[in-house]
Amino acid sequence: MPKNREKPEADTSSNSEQLGDAPSKxxxxxxxxxxxxxxxxxxxxxxxxxxxxxxLYKPIMYGDMIENFGIVMMxxxxxxxxxxxxxxxxxxxxxx
Length: 96
Fold this sequence. Notes:
The chain is mainly alpha-helical. The protein has a domain at 44-96. It is 64% helix and 0% strand. The chain has helices at 17-20, 33-62, 68-94. Helix 2 (33-62) runs antiparallel to helix 3. The two termini are 27 Å apart. The model has no long low-confidence stretch (mean pLDDT 80).
């Protein structure tokens, strides 16, 4: 039967040297709160550029007025994307 790699088996031997020989897990990247916030702002800015490019394409190309719905989308979607990214980033980094 294959061994379960996620669950280490109990060491029943009396040799204490074997415990120190196990390779340690590679360290995970742990950004500070400031780095997490900067990443969140960056993702929000990228989302703003994408949404505003879509919303403003017609007014720039054809000279039409910007619809109110487009302005609302340009202001709300980047905030939602940035917060969702931060929640996902925090849950992924804080998972043990």
